[in-house]
Amino acid sequence: MNNTISDVIVKTMDGKDKKLAEYMNKVLLIVNVASQCGYTSQYAGLEKLNQNYKEAGLKILGFPCNDFGGQEPGTNEEITDFCTRNYSTTFELFDKLHAKGEEQHPLYARLTTAIEPKGPIAWNFEKFLVNKQGEVVARFKSSVKPNSPELIAAIEREIAQ
């Protein structure tokens, strides 16, 4: 099974293709985000992680997703505006995609089968940590906050590699 995401292509907020190989030698935290979720306040913690670790090589990639309770109904423009206005986010947000189901994006097909626990994403704000070689190395449930010691320790471990 391919444990890397480097060959996956995603769409930017303005509809351009972007190959995840562009992030080689960076540690990635990939999160399926939503604006109307009980976990939406995690945007603030994600931005704090971004500010604290971007110089060290962390990139946070947010993928809006409407698959869970219809909690991300907005357009890309509305999502960007919401995140900027409410959380002053500066990390990268991408085009909305499907994290589960028949229309599951290849990125999430790879993420959910690359590492234990394997299986479908349960809700918004699940987090996947990807090392500098593009390999998925950790998965964190929605309830794991961006400032949780286990997540920060995993990020720092990968940055130090």
From TrEMBL:
- Enumerate the Gene3D superfamilies for this protein: Glutaredoxin
- Active site, renumbered: C37
Asked whether the keyword Oxidoreductase is assigned, the reply is yes
A Gene Ontology BP annotation from the UniProt entry? cellular response to oxidative stress
In this chain the Thioredoxin domain maps to 1-160
Keyword list (alphabetical) reads: Oxidoreductase, Peroxidase
InterPro entries linked: Glutathione_peroxidase (IPR000889), GPX_AS (IPR029759), Thioredoxin-like_sf (IPR036249), Thioredoxin_domain (IPR013766)
Q: Could you give a GO molecular-function term held by this entry?
A: peroxidase activity
| Keyword flag Endoplasmic reticulum | no
SUPFAM superfamilies linked = Thioredoxin-like
| Family, per entry | Belongs to the glutathione peroxidase family.
Q: What is this protein called?
A: Glutathione peroxidase
